[in-house]
Amino acid sequence: MKYFKYILLAVVGLFISSCGDEFLNPLPDSAIVTDAFFASDDEVLAGIIGVYDAIQGVNENTNTSLVSSNRGIQFEYMISEMRTDNTRTATLEGSKADFHRYRVEPNNIQSEDYYESMYSVIFRANNILNFIEVADPANQSRYAAEAKFLRAFAYFKLVRLYADVPLATDVVLPDDNETLFTRVAVARIYEQIVSDLQEAVDNLDNTYKSRASKAGAQGLLAKVYLSQPSPNYSAAEQLCLAIVTSGDFSLEENFTDVFYNELNDEILFAIQYEAGNTLESQSFSSEFTATFRQGREDGHNIVNDNLIAAFNEYGGNRTDQSFFDTGTWNEVIKFLPLGSDITTTPPTYGSSPRDAGNDWIVLRYADVLLMHAEAILAGGNETTSSAAIDSYMAVRMRAGFDASDRPSVLTKDRLLVERRVELAFENQRFYDLLRFGVADAVISAHAEEMGYTSYDSRKLLLPIPSREINLSAGLLTQNPGY
Amino acid sequence: MTNINNFRKIAMYCMCICGIGFLVSCESMFEFDLPESNSKVDTVLPTADFSFIPDAGDFKTIMFSDLSFESTQYLWDFGNGNTTTERDPVFTFPSEGTYSVKLTVSDNNGASDEITKEIKVEDLFVAITPEIINGDFSDGQNDWKFSSFTNGTTSPYNSSSDGSWLNYDGTDNGSKTAGAKWTMSTSAGAYKSSNTRYAYQAIVVSPNTDYILEYEYAIKNDGTQAPDDNRIIGGIIDGHFDDGADAVPSFDGGSLLSFVGDEDLGKTVFTKVELPFTANASGEVAILIYGVTDVDAYVDNVKVYPKE
User: What is the pLDDT of residues A346-384, one digit of tens each?
Assistant: First the structure.
């Protein structure tokens, strides 16, 4: 075992020199960034921007290797949209087609990539905190708050998808297997997330939308309070109210503008991409095409009939602005590549659909309004609170519903379906179902309807990637059912 | 025939010889191998665990999910001789209460593990507590008016400063609070006219659920009695109405609750009543309060809340 460390270091060294990337994630990530230290305020800031790069991920069209590139959140729709009743994939081939049928295996490359991407975010954030003294004293608390916001963002994703996960809050050396591979209880992970986000709320302002902000942290923390094992509804309500009363945000009048007028008044936090730039673009916009295929791999996020039925009843004018029927498939149109025109037959998708620049919206004001109503509902089945119904109606009226449609009682089911049609294809559905306590009921009914026989309640958790388990020398345990 | 029989015999002999050959060769092949050699002891043994969640439609029906490791067989014991070998069973308990559920899991080597959990079967339904707007009458006549009243008045009562000494939250105000007042000229009953005043407020409650209507009333005792006594009538109408001319006959013809209070203890000496009713199937009901009185009568602090 003594030699193992040297062998490991040699292997790590090899990768630094040969591909300089993240093959043995999460090990080399922390090892590499520890070596690369920051010597000035500018370098710490550059390091923070580097954390956003890890969330942004590498476009599949720019580097096709799934082994040497992390996709950041570019694969997230598979994990949290296709794994619900909202969407599916056109084919049955390949590991990307395993999500909608609940057949994800521990060696699934996309799930593994997502896990690694989130740890990449965490390790980079931890490294910033390690060098925080290098920054200008005036900037230190802000930089630390931003790093903690990003770390909380990643842990919040991980804890809901994989449950107990290793918790690293400091730079981890490559031989510290105990930190890297000991699963820590969900409640403890949430404690860390809450404390990190609280620091972000206290130390950030609303200067940025494409970087961490006070409002972004408030909104994320509200969702954390609603999601944690023992929800804190009153704290969530206060946070949503603080965002509402700040006056910094409002609903876009026109639903389409939310997606095509980037960083608009409704956005609290978005991950930016740049069209045509191979290093800063994303692949998912092209992957949502199915009939007139634009992607390297496409036919993903096809809209299920079940969702279309919900749109027809509750969608209002959002229906025609969320998906369209090509005659063959119903395809997502919230993230059409720059220059697309779907009014022509066949539709056109601009000059570089594979290097799409559509931002990924993490949090927007409509989500906050609906969370406000959810916090007042406080786990109950219905509420007559006029504040809750006001927030709910603000979102509905933007979708073209009349004020006279105002219900006297807001039920949990109505709020859930409103979130479904408002936030469809924005990777919210899976987490909504979990929070509302109906994930198993809704998905098992959906799986039965679609004939996805692999589903059982254990599939609500993704498997811990087998590569991590193999690297852990028996420390890391698997989730039940895998 | 003989040829065929011969053939069969020969075939049988051949098969016997072959069979013996196989037996012999097998024996010789494994002659020096112990049965256990090259097989490893299974050190990864089953561990039992499960989760459960009540069905959304029926809290007594519990859906169980196996969360065990390294196991292939499952035995669930729900008590009272109810068992199953399904992996993810659904079981309906007879009534509310706490039950012990045991899951025993085993692998194909016969190794096993078990876990017992206490399952609390309870109705977590939380009934709506409707917000009675201006329930303390501090905001004049607001929120107690019919939107229209054919051949009548939408004015609900006289705003009065002679209400209860209690605030809406039950604390002592130290002096009178605002209240609602009825007089002979605004009375119903024998005095019913186009000037009769009714306090009306539509509310939404949980369907088919038991509720309490609570309010305080006081009747002066210094004057004459109206025919059939001075009284304050309070109750719950089955449904929402826009026009008072539709609501009052509905109330008279059959309501969810109608109570006649005739304690005439004097001005500002209030009697609190807590009146049970069961909501209708839609949950859309309305409060109706009015007086039949020769003398001044008062109402204050109107509340509706779930029973218990």
Answer: 999 999 999 999 999 999 999 999 999 999 999 988 888
Three-class SS of residue A6?
A: helix
What are the pLDDT digits (tens) for A164-213? 999 999 999 888 899 999 999 999 999 999 999 999 999 999 999 999 99
Q: Which helix (H) or strand (E) holds B77?
A: strand B73-77
Contacts of A261 (CB under 8 A, 6+ apart): A252
Measured between beta carbons, the chain A residues lying within 8 angstroms of B67 are 458, 480-481
Domain boundary among A325, A358, A391: A358
Number of Cβ within 10 Å of residue A110's Cβ equals: 21
Residues of chain B with CATH 2.60.40.10: 50-121
Nearest-by-Cβ selection for B128 from A386, A409, A481 = A409
Buried b (16+ CB within 10 A) or exposed e, B37-62: eeeeeeeeebbbbbeeebebeeebeb
- The CATH 2.60.120.260 domain(s) of chain B lie at 158-306
Report how many domains make up chain A.
2
CATH of domain B158-306: 2.60.120.260
Q: Are residues A200 and A279 in the same domain?
A: no
Residue A222 lies in a domain: no
Domain that holds residue A37: 23-204
- Radius of gyration over every alpha carbon of chain A, rounded to an integer in angstroms: 22
Output the pTM of the full model.
Answer: 0.79
A15 falls in which pLDDT band (50, 70, 90)?
very low
Query: In B, residues 46-65, which contact A (CB 8 Å cutoff)?
Result: 49, 51, 53, 55-56, 63, 65
Main-chain phi, psi angles of A414, to 5 degrees: -65, -40
* CATH of residue A93: 1.25.40.390
Give me the CATH code for the B50-121 domain, please: 2.60.40.10
Residues A83 and A197 in one domain: yes
Measured between beta carbons, the chain B residues lying within 8 angstroms of A480 are 49, 66-69
Give the tokens for residue B298. 């008062």
pLDDT digits 0-9 by tens, B227-252: 999 999 999 999 999 999 999 999 99
Are A305 and A197 contained in the same domain? no
- Residues with Cβ within 8 Å of B255's Cβ and at least 6 positions away in sequence, in order, are B235, B236, B237, B238, B288
Report if residue A447 sits inside a domain: no
Instruction: Look at residues A185, A204, A223 and tell me which one is the last residue of a structural domain.
Output: A204
- CA nearest A61: which of A425, A356, A331, A360? A356
Q: What is the DSSP letter of B251?
A: H
- Substitution target from A102, A377, A381 for chain B, most B beta carbons within 10 A: A381
Residue A387 has pLDDT above 60, yes or no: yes
